[in-house]
Amino acid sequence: MKLDTISKTTPKTSSKRKGRGYGSGKGGHTSGRGSKGQKSRSKVPLYFEGTPMRKSLIRRMPMLRGKLRFKSTQNKPLILNLKHLNLFKKDAVITINSLIKIGLLPKEAAAKGQKIKILGDGKLEKALKVSVPTSKAAAKAIAKAGGKIVEVKKVVKKTTKKVTKKVTKKVVKKSK
User: Fold this and answer.
1) What per-residue confidence (pLDDT) applies to 33?
2) Residue 8: inside a domain
3) Residue 117 lies in a domain
4) Confidence class of residue 2 from pLDDT cuts 50, 70 and 90?
């Protein structure tokens, strides 16, 4: 072997394992954890706040036991791709109920109020009217195929500010 034939790139060395003695290459005394303090002795838990357990956030939260206690409890949307929408006829209106009729969604999706989203994977070959939430890529592909995206209007509850103002005015007039 000659020096000019050796490749210039060096092979990657594996990361040094802390706390495994002098033979690990990390040193023995502090084993690569610095000196003293909470992090050198053990791992700091995810829920650590620096306060006693009695006042901590974890004590104020409802009890969730098991491995998944720090994961989100929100439901993730059911995902459909554009290639699945080719099952519909041209100029069809796509709603949650029409997706259930064809069999792309389970029957429980409408009853539970499950969120649904259409993503841009695949190619759409027909012009459709979509009234289901879509990604930006899917919206572009629908418009390119000659379809439209119909926004679903959400029902907004009316506030009672006007009612409370009228009541307070009447009370003021009576007291004078």
Assistant:
1) 82
2) no
3) yes
4) confident
79: its two tokens: 């995902």
d(CA 28, CA 71): 37
CATH at 91: 3.100.10.10
Strands 148-149 and 116-119: unpaired
Q: Give the 3-state secondary structure of the chain.
A: CCHHHCCCCCCCCCCCCCCCCHHHCCCCCCCCCCCCCHHHHCCCCCCCCCCCHHHCHHHHCCCCCCCCCCCCCCCCCEEEEHHHHHHCCCCCEECHHHHHHHCCCCCHHHHHCCCEEEECCCCCCCCCEECCCECHHHHHHHHHCCCEECCCCCCCCCCCHHHHHHHHHHHHHHHC
The pTM assigned to this predicted structure is 0.48
Q: Is 87 part of a structural domain of the chain? A: yes
pLDDT tens digits for range 81-139 = 999 999 999 999 999 899 999 999 888 887 777 888 999 999 999 899 999 999 999 99
